[in-house]
Here is the input.
Amino acid sequence: MVLANCSNRTICIFIILMVMLVQSGYQTNRIMRIMAEMMQESSFSSTTTTSTVKGAVQLQHQQQQQQQVVNAYPPHIPSFPPDILEIIKSTNSSDYTWLGNHFVPPPGVPVFTPSQIRTYFLQRNILMMGDSTNRRLFGTLRAIVNAEDLDDVKVAPLEEIKRRRRLQDDQNLTSLTSAASVAKFEAMSKGVPDCGPRALKVGGVSSYQNIIGSTAEEYAALNHVNAHSNVDTASSNQTTSTQRDEAKKQRKGFFDMVVDFCYHNVLWNFMVENKGGEMLNAIKEDYDLVIVNSGIWEGINMGACRRDVNSGLGHLPMLLDTLRDSSSKDLQIVFRTPGFALGRLNQIMSADYHPDIANLLWNFTNYSKQFFHNISMTQKKANFGAPRPNMTIVDYGTIVSKRSFGEDRIKGDHIAHYGLGARLLWVQQLMHELIKAEIENYELEKAKAVLSSGDNDA
Here is the structure.
């Protein structure tokens, strides 16, 4: 009866031995010894079980804390495990290598998928500024974001280049009528202000000829049509404008480009002297991420870039200082180190390696890397108490240099351009540095919150 209700094996055996001990006058010492050993084992088992349970609870708590940290990042950050995020944070875009014409990330850093790339950039408002290499990078990144099948992104759209000259009609624009498209270009060519701030960033013949399909094009055209539509009262016009501006502030996924061939062209966009800072204010209003891809034309077209010699940094130092000062919590700026060109425009070369051009571009790359290193060292010396510029470097030049000369070059359609393999390297590096910056900014804000909480408690 007792054994029938016994659920613990050790207790059951212990009871049996007690009965045997009572009923039997022999083997008493042997039975007592077995009972003592069982009691010791039971005690050890209980201690071990308790320790194991405590360890499991602690591990679960640690995992929950780690998951809470991961979940605290913005939703567009890929949900990598904490150890992967730590590797991303501890490496950078200078750590990439090559296997043939395929880039190799630093050990432990994942290759970002088209789905992750799309998710990230659809939550940002992006303006890419730069030369013709910027236009090619814009086209590649835009093709990934807009891919119909993220599991099978074809080569053709990644290689496609779209151009349209001023006043040229385009029947392929599904969101705009032909009349609206032409009206937009007319308004921009005449400098009509009612095109809105987005149109300001694509003003000028050389700037807006390559923005087909960008959101700046859509906004400028629709804004122009709305501004010239028939309305009954001034109040309704004001309401329409207010509603449009409010909707614009809430929208994510702006993805625009302007052509600025030289460093001084990019610099001018951020100068207060440029129409009283109108361009800079427009950039801050519409975008939270500006990506600068310039530099290579400084060597291949010195006249256009206002250079008289093959050496010297030109406008680069002033540009980096201005970009640093223009960045803010609401405006992140990414600067890419340039690649290398095969020669100069309208000049026949006997070889595809030109030391004067290569040395100039190396000087740009090395100066830029030192500039960002100095920012980092200033932060560390001040125990991260110094103002932190919201500025990031993508060290494309150092890595792509190994695929820039002779038979090793990943050739593009122009002496300044690279093929798809090199452009996909840039997309990966860009994602790496952006995710890294997001992690660092999050941890910095978290540390500040902890310090502030401690001060309040004191």
